[in-house]
Design a protein that fits this description.
- This is Carboxylic ester hydrolase.
- Its EC number is 3.1.1.-.
- Belongs to the 'GDXG' lipolytic enzyme family. Belongs to the type-B carboxylesterase/lipase family.
- The chain is of the alpha/beta class and 479 residues long.
- The protein has 14 helices and 13 strands.
- The strands form two sheets. It has a ten-stranded mixed β-sheet, with helices on both faces. The protein has a three-stranded mixed β-sheet with strand order 1-2-5, with no helix packed on it.
- α6 packs across α8.
- The protein starts with 7 loop residues before the first strand and ends with a strand.
Amino acid sequence: MPQHADPVVETPAGAVRGVRDGSGERYRAIPYAAAPTGAGRFAPPAPHPGWSGVRDGTRPSPTAPQPARNFGRLDMTPYFGPGWVRGDEYLTVDVRTPAADDGRRPVMVFVHGGGFVTGSTRAALYDGSAFARDGVVLVTVNYRLGIPGFLDMEGAPANRGLLDVLAALRWVRDTIPAFGGDPDAVTVFGQSAGATLTGALLATPDAKGLFRRAIIQSGSGTGAFTPEQARRVTSAAAATLGIEPTAEAFAAIPDERFLETLPALTGLDLRTTTATDPLVGLSPFSLVLPVQPAEALADGPAADVDLLIGTNTEEGHLYLVPQDRFELSTETDVLALAEQVHDAPEALVAAHRAARPDATPGELRSAVLGEALFGAGTARMADAHARISGGRTHVYSFAHRSTALDGRLGATHTVELPFVFDLADEPWLHGDTGLLGPTPAPAGLAARVHGAWVAFAATGDPGWASHDPQRPATEVFGG
């Protein structure tokens, strides 16, 4: 019989068939844990039983149950992917490698964003061809979302989505040599919710030894809910479903019902006497921790990990411009937002206005939102990591402005991703409703950003001075 042309890799769980293309080899939908069904949706990730024969790794995975997301005229499908693609076995990874040999190449493990409720490895933006082309093994991870992933409840471990990412990292440690990767040269990187999860790993004792470097793109080191805030969400979810707030009761409810409850949970008032809502009502789910990751780095591997961290200069635009709330913003809207996120709202608005005296109310509202969601928690994380790691922290700012939506979208949340993955010239990211807008991406910017990420994964040095809280150093991309 003729040899099958597609590559086959032997892993500890069984053999997987992938495909070969111009960038190397790709293997999709490889389980790193057992399918989370029934009560298992609220249990820690369990080992996968493995399989006999050769598993088909040429087709994409099912995805975690998730709602559809709508950003008005802006086409965000490259970011969110296809939404919920049904199937039990969605705790999977995709692997892109130059070759499944004994190469021991740098490994990058990507944790997607989507507000802890959406996203998957199937999103077009996470195509790893450019990483494989440049000698990196890229692993992208699906994890539990929404109520199964992050609702805190009696009888279930907290932060199950984070436990999934830890299980995927153990899979990488044990399996990646078969795909040509070096388990001692692993970089975890994430964006948005995935970046906040990455930051939490830095403070997680069980993460020690699983990775050497981390990249936090538009996340927050102070983005976790307090236990009291989490209880409010759980109470609302249980009341909406008419059940007790226990894992046993939630286990009897199908995933469809969970998705139907999400509108009732979004916009809850989570402010307490000790904490504001770190997600400003945009998502009812986050990590649940007694101490914020930026304050608990000594508990985890952070001191031994190189960190690359940053934000975009107009993060808040994504939540205002596509919804036509940017131009319509008033001074009253700015103050109302400041009251949500700060103990001294007038002083906060005054500080933003002093920094940008010519700013419109929409620009001020975006700035307050971006600082609350990402900026302040990123700065805390960068300073905290620099203090314990001795010159191993590098900070960036992404300033290239998308011309989408009549030139108004700007350097908003998510626009760095096409440059990180070196996809910025793809036609599906352009046009007035595409993420990057109708104008071509600046020549060389994607090569520079992607090149810095690859260099950091290989050496820990992205190509600029490290961050010191006394002498801050920030590399600016674009703008």
